[in-house]
């Protein structure tokens, strides 16, 4: 059991009035009489057992008994009966249930159009469906925003799955969900309930402030059942202990809005003397303070190891855990070995040292991943094809995407985009927004269904052009003057599909992977953002009658900006390779250089394109110039 209120001296409510001489219960669900007491259990919740036990007593009003031997016929029929039929199992699932959702006003979405309510409802439905691993979608029937609270109504079955979203992160805050005692309020009742809720919150803040020691960074939640302020508020009669504890954690989340603020303010919590027998009753503690260092669970009722198992993968930074005066000491003396394996930084378990700080540091060092040594990019080009493609691709992607796609992509080309929102990045660089990219993202960690993955794999020139047009405009660093901002690998591969159908074994191609950065501009907000990217492109021979080179596959991964390693950047920008002395240029080379310069002057092409044009024409200048004009017209 979780912490409960005092038992001695609590008033004993009785539903039977001795003075009246009448039965005070009608059987089944009884209507509350004005001023009459209600029977509650020891936790303060309504006791439904008494009503159920008396349900066989009939309608509750005494009727004159039938004479002996008479055959009294009932005049009640199904049509005239005032008692509704018992609902079927299917109908019981359709009973509406109202939940209270907190967190909207503290979220980043509150400035959105409509106050972020629509985004919150979509999040709840989506997460409830995935968390419950349901074959159908969870649906919220009604929603209502009143003050700081959002009331959502769903079927009983869907509401149970929505409750599983409690504690999830959304829009920079945590969503807290509780069951409403009644339906969503209307009109004046809503404002009264909101004011009452604010009064409860204020009293809970006062109680937490009295129990907080800033010098020791200690939050003292011991013996909540005997707290005078909670007793005065009737919290143990109006709410279950689990709901009370969730409410306390909501107050803490509002007080300390970031994870760093929580670490700076509270490192120790005591829950001693709360009659806890399963940590699931106070699970929200690990959600609100996941980085706790010291925790006291002494003088509770934990009997078995399973009462602690829900924390097996939580509290990874805990160093001190006190379980003194719990029944588990007698029932399972070997439990300490198990707990040491659960918490990698645990040093003090119930006053016994189980690890030293040096052992913790050594274990962390042993488990720390060792990066693979990098010796710079491996660029194995063939006849300059890879170099020419990369130069053309980066320029075309920034300046003319439709033309780039029409040149290198065909009906069999594939393009996909993936947003990696959890990549490492410098702490002083804020995380970027992904609104312009996220709807196209094919990140398989987030997109798990086959249909959704297929929808985000774009094939064919027209489709790829359409997607590229919807992506923000970009500007990559100049490849010639800022090559240190790229790491590019290039390797030949074989076995690509032969679009001409001549080789069943496939044809040779090339795989190019380049890592770098670019700046983009959001088309709506006009905000410029710098991002890191990785792009893997597979090149193969083009189809007959098309460009000689085609893109078979293009995979783009976007991440928060993180500069390339400086060692690699310096090695790429200034390779420490001895330069051989240059031999004097021959007369043929001098003539080619002159032809190249003249063709650049007359056509306006850059040096790379002019050289390609002359190579095709076997360095016959007039033929190269004629080829240029012919291609330009076509």
From TrEMBL:
Q: Which family does it belong to?
A: Belongs to the NXF family.
Q: Where is the NTF2 domain?
A: 385-558
Q: Biased composition, Polar residues: where in the chain?
A: 11-23
Concerning SUPFAM superfamilies, the annotation shows:
L domain-like, NTF2-like, UBA-like
UniProt keywords (A-Z) are: Leucine-rich repeat, mRNA transport, Nucleus, Repeat, Transport
Give the main location.
nucleus
Q: Positions of the region Disordered?
A: 1-93
- Return the protein name: mRNA export factor mex67
Against CDD domains, the record matches this protein to: UBA_TAP-C
Instruction: Supply the source organism for this entry.
Output: Apiospora hydei
Q: Which residues form the TAP-C domain?
A: 590-634
Compartment annotation: Nucleus
SMART domains listed in its UniProt record: TAP_C
Whether Metal-binding counts among this entry's keywords is: no
Annotated InterPro entries: Leu-rich_rpt, LRR_dom_sf, NTF2-like_dom_sf, NTF2_dom, Nuclear_transport_factor_2_euk, NXF1/2/3/5-like_LRR, NXF_fam, TAP_C_dom
